[in-house]
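Researcher: I need the complex structure. Ligand is zinc ion. Inputs:
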Amino acid sequence: MYLYNSLSHKKELFQPNHPDIVKMYTCGPTVYHFAHIGNLRTYIMEDILEKALRYEGYPVKRVMNITDVGHLASDADTGEDKMLKGAKREHKSVMDVAKYYTDAFFADCDKLNIKRPDVVEPATNCISEYINMVSTLLEKKKAYIAGGNVYFDTSTLEQYYVFNDHNEDDLAVGVREGVEEDTNKRNKNDFVLWFTKSKFEDQALKWDSPWGVGYPGWHIECSCISMKHLGEDLDIHCGGIDNAFPHHTNEIAQSESYLGHKWCNYWFHVHHLNTNGGKMSKSKGEFLTVSLLEEKGYDPMAYRLFCLQSHYRRNLVFSWENLDNAAAAYDKLIAKIAVLNGDGQNVDQTAFESMKERFVKALDGDLNTSVAVTNLYDVLKAKTNDATKLAALADFDRVLCLNLIEAATQLRKKNAEEEAASADPEIDALVAARTEAKKAKDFAEADRIRDELKTRGIEIIDTPQGAKWRKV
Ligand code: AMP
Ligand code: ZN
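Model: Output:
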């Protein structure tokens, strides 16, 4: 599989460090609010990556954190704590807010067929791991204490901006308007490993540490949780593109300084879901959730298809019109699958393998999900029997997870039920009499029956399987 690696800025052949495991880490949600459909775009695409790897035979172990502490309003470590903001908004405790939105996040993931990672670790579970890493960084003189906080010293690095060519001025982007700069920092890029002094003295969750009672910085969570469950090396680290700087840049700085060697080989970044007003963001307060899409009558699978129709390295613009198109495409796709009938047929292995080969090629080309979706239509059009088509669709859906077979089975059942509910033996008899008249070339009689049915509001539809009727 070729994957674009943000670290090298090119597509690279994916080669895991170990033959028996692919170590994958995902930055989890900050659970102070519902996940919006932009966040979920990132999780859908990461889910596809994991499933594509598994589909191609890689044994994956995937770990994800839940950010329930340490994430401040600005990714540059200043401003209000996001969890505290959620707790104030809802008049609940931070832990209650964390539990509520963690459960809500996984409920949304279930609706979108996003598999739960093998390990899910709340950041508040790993305090001793953070203290251990911070202590080592201090011993190695990679960190310093100032104003009560422990900071990572970026001047000890040969290269800090590993993903892009940021310069000092660009850093202003991370320091948002109205947020004061931290004067304890020796270098502008330095970041907090452990807080004891925050502008917000009422920080809800604090722990004892060698540097005083306090709480961890956001970035250190991911380094420590990854190492706790995956060891000292990592194959793929995933996240939204906004995480590349400063979050992932800081993760690399502290992890590699701590380990003394390279940490993660491939960085997989999903680009944003935007609205006309720009990036969809939780902090702006106005955003769309999966529940809201459902309230408006959309099947969450329509949103999953919407995401799969575009490449993960392109910004995706959300509009209701675009979602309507995806929903219509999904319904059409399911309707086409629902009419397939492979009963009593054998799967043509040669045809199956050649369709599968094209599907794998799409996945291997930097996870080209839009081509993989097109492959579904190619299967439907293929010159092979229905059993083979159904087998290929079910197989591809192990990765795409669009509920193709289940939704088609349900639709078939619904259609059959509707047909049964509208059954009318008298009309059936008239339709059969018309068919007989046609066979006997008594076209006058056939037309008379058709006209009679028409006056009763019944339309006859001639199909290759015989004449059918429907109420108009
Ligand atoms: P958060 O809960 O804010 O920590 O974000 C969870 C994940 O969603 C991270 O990987 C972010 O990079 C990603 N993310 C945030 N906003 C967007 C967006 N508009 N589109 C896609 N991914 C996003
Ligand atoms: Zn992270």
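Model: Summary of the prediction. Residues 4 and 143 are 32 Å apart (CA to CA).
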